[in-house]
Amino acid sequence: MGNEAAAMAQEAEQSKEIIHYLATNTFLGEVNMQTMYMTWIAMAIVFVLFFAASRNPKLVPSGLQNVMEFFVDFLNGLMEDNLGGVKGRKYMAPFIITLFMFILVSNEIGMLPQVGVHWTSPTNDINTCFGLSLLVAFSAYLVGVMQQGIGHFKHFVSPSPAFLPLHLLDAVTKPLTMALRLFGNILAGEILLIVLYQLAPWVVPELWVMFSLFIGFVQAFIFTILALGSYALAFAGHEE
């Protein structure tokens, strides 16, 4: 696999592409292998972060445990504010925390130095972003039915059946805008970084990397907030 990946990377470099997706034909169709590799790495990083932070927890946290607890407490607060209190937070915490951390890590790894590995963000691929937004959209309906039964769908005709077309339009456009917002910001950041390294290889790219790291956090936060908005309907009436 290593030799195959290296050959595909060299071929991509020769094609003069700005972003190398390493598109490969498989029995599943055309697959962007670079996205697949980076997705696996992002998942591994998230796993290692949580494993290392929780391996020997201390009453007074420090180092990595302190950082991870900051993110967990931050997300718990968002969930309690948007999902009707403690019940909604306990129900959704594993998924929401994992979703946020995966998107955050995915956004940031594209900023790593290109030494030995061609680092790119999985979220610079529209397929990844659409996959995440569709996951949120369909799982929100699933959670809604589990919490409220088939009556969950009555919001499509609320406050009047005349609003059904608008609610259906919102159901289609919301995942679309979530995906495009995340994809556009991350892809634009990586393309601009490549251009800056070609035009001014010193200082300016490093400043842009620091700004892009902040943007990566902001985009993970925005995506998570929009996801919480989708799940909020499932916990409506459960305020504590």
TrEMBL record:
<protein>
    <recommendedName>
        <fullName>ATP synthase subunit a</fullName>
    </recommendedName>
</protein>
<dbReference type="InterPro" id="IPR000568">
    <property type="entry name" value="ATP_synth_F0_asu"/>
</dbReference>
<feature type="transmembrane region" description="Helical">
    <location>
        <begin position="91"/>
        <end position="110"/>
    </location>
</feature>
<comment type="function">
    <text>Key component of the proton channel; it plays a direct role in the translocation of protons across the membrane.</text>
</comment>
<dbReference type="InterPro" id="IPR035908">
    <property type="entry name" value="F0_ATP_A_sf"/>
</dbReference>
<keyword id="KW-1003">Cell membrane</keyword>
<dbReference type="GO" id="GO:0045259">
    <property type="term" value="C:proton-transporting ATP synthase complex"/>
</dbReference>
<keyword id="KW-0138">CF(0)</keyword>
<keyword id="KW-0066">ATP synthesis</keyword>
<feature type="transmembrane region" description="Helical">
    <location>
        <begin position="182"/>
        <end position="204"/>
    </location>
</feature>
<feature type="transmembrane region" description="Helical">
    <location>
        <begin position="130"/>
        <end position="146"/>
    </location>
</feature>
<keyword id="KW-0472">Membrane</keyword>
<keyword id="KW-0375">Hydrogen ion transport</keyword>
<feature type="transmembrane region" description="Helical">
    <location>
        <begin position="35"/>
        <end position="53"/>
    </location>
</feature>
<dbReference type="Pfam" id="PF00119">
    <property type="entry name" value="ATP-synt_A"/>
</dbReference>
<dbReference type="GO" id="GO:0046933">
    <property type="term" value="F:proton-transporting ATP synthase activity, rotational mechanism"/>
</dbReference>
<dbReference type="InterPro" id="IPR045082">
    <property type="entry name" value="ATP_syn_F0_a_bact/chloroplast"/>
</dbReference>
<comment type="similarity">
    <text>Belongs to the ATPase A chain family.</text>
</comment>
<keyword id="KW-1133">Transmembrane helix</keyword>
<dbReference type="InterPro" id="IPR023011">
    <property type="entry name" value="ATP_synth_F0_asu_AS"/>
</dbReference>
<dbReference type="GO" id="GO:0005886">
    <property type="term" value="C:plasma membrane"/>
</dbReference>
<dbReference type="GO" id="GO:0042777">
    <property type="term" value="P:proton motive force-driven plasma membrane ATP synthesis"/>
</dbReference>
<keyword id="KW-0378">Hydrolase</keyword>
<keyword id="KW-0813">Transport</keyword>
<keyword id="KW-0812">Transmembrane</keyword>
<keyword id="KW-0406">Ion transport</keyword>
<feature type="transmembrane region" description="Helical">
    <location>
        <begin position="210"/>
        <end position="234"/>
    </location>
</feature>
<dbReference type="GO" id="GO:0016787">
    <property type="term" value="F:hydrolase activity"/>
</dbReference>
